[in-house]
């Protein structure tokens, strides 16, 4: 992103629009918010939260801190099956056929823009990708300590420049994702993500300090717990403790697997659908 926009991040109310590629896009956004100093006032609109709009949006006007509001307008995570369904839908409606994004669902963004534009000066247009051939980040990889390299471009747009009617806002959002699709296709074919300059977000020493404090506190409490209960003084207690941690680990892994994008709702077209056969060629 450009340096001027970087200086404004965390100092102004903003709506974040990003393509939804992996299981932990939200975590990447929170890490960005933390390094911009506005993690405590960052929110995300996902799935069931949409039914509480617009009443919840009005409350943001009185936020004591600059907030970020993230909205994944594709409505679901990107998978090959969902891309195929999106391509078939686009072909049937005479729309540009996407290759790297899904077709945005515009009712949510229309509602959000209409309710927050008076007190939100900026939209951060975020485009996220992983280099072709690299493993995308997942929650399971995160817990295993396996890193992933991601690319993120942020373009600051002025809210005042957006159109005002619902239909025009919807068309603006669709055009935005057509541009994202072209950018991602360029990256997949040339390894050039964009011409924007790289910005060093740095690492917060405060976060490391907080993690160390919590680690020491929890470690001390755990030590005192085992000391007072004498749970590790017998073979039965040791066995129960080991079994407890094994069960907790297995349950966490099952829950993480269940949330992966590959296991999300499938959106398959009928096998004999001519549009499907054409798109598979």
TrEMBL record:
GO cellular component: endomembrane system
Enzyme class (EC, first level): transferase
SUPFAM superfamilies per UniProt: Glycerol-3-phosphate (1)-acyltransferase
Metabolic or biological pathway: Phospholipid metabolism; CDP-diacylglycerol biosynthesis; CDP-diacylglycerol from sn-glycerol 3-phosphate: step 2/3; Lipid metabolism
UniProt keyword annotation of Transmembrane helix present: yes
KW Transferase (keyword) present: yes
EC number: 2.3.1.51
Entry's Gene Ontology BP terms: CDP-diacylglycerol biosynthetic process
SMART domains from the UniProt entry: PlsC (SM00563)
GO molecular function: 1-acylglycerol-3-phosphate O-acyltransferase activity
Positions of the Phospholipid/glycerol acyltransferase domain: 14-110
Residue stretches spanning the membrane: 208-226, 232-256
Catalytic activity of the protein: a 1-acyl-sn-glycero-3-phosphate + an acyl-CoA = a 1,2-diacyl-sn-glycero-3-phosphate + CoA
Keywords, sorted A to Z: Acyltransferase, Membrane, Transferase, Transmembrane, Transmembrane helix
Coiled coil regions in record: none
Source organism, top-level taxon: Eukaryota
Family, per entry: Belongs to the 1-acyl-sn-glycerol-3-phosphate acyltransferase family.
Protein name per the record: 1-acylglycerol-3-phosphate O-acyltransferase
Taxon lineage: Eukaryota, Viridiplantae, Streptophyta, Embryophyta, Tracheophyta
């Amino acid at each position: 992103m450009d340096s001027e926009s970087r200086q404004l991040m965390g100092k102004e109310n903003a709506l974040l629009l990003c393509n939804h590629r992996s299981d932990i896009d939200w975590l990447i956004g929170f890490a960005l918010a933390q390094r911009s100093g506005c993690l405590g006032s960052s929110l995300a609109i996902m799935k069931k939260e949409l039914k509480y709009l617009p009443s919840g949006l009005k409350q943001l006007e009185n936020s004591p801190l600059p907030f970020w509001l993230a909205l994944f307008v594709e409505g679901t995570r990107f998978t090959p099956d969902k891309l195929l369904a999106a391509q078939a839908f686009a072909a049937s409606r005479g729309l540009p056929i996407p290759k790297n994004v899904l077709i945005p669902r515009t009712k949510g963004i229309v509602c959000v823009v209409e309710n927050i534009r008076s007190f939100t000066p900026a939209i951060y247009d975020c485009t996220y990708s992983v280099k072709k051939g690299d493993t995308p980040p997942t929650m399971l990889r995160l817990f295993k300590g396996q890193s992933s390299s991601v690319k993120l471009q942020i373009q600051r747009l002025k809210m005042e420049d957006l159109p005002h009617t619902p239909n025009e806002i919807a068309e603006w959002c669709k055009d935005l994702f057509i541009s994202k699709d072209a950018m991602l296709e360029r990256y997949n074919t040339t390894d050039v993500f964009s011409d924007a300059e790289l910005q060093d977000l740095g690492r917060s020493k405060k976060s490391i300090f907080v993690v160390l404090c919590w680690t020491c506190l929890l470690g001390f409490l755990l030590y005192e717990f085992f000391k007072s209960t004498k749970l590790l003084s017998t073979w039965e207690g040791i066995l129960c403790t080991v079994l407890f941690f094994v069960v907790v680990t297995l349950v966490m892994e099952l829950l993480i697997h269940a949330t992966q994008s590959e296991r999300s709702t499938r959106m398959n077209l009928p096998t004999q659908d001519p549009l499907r056969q054409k798109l598979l060629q």
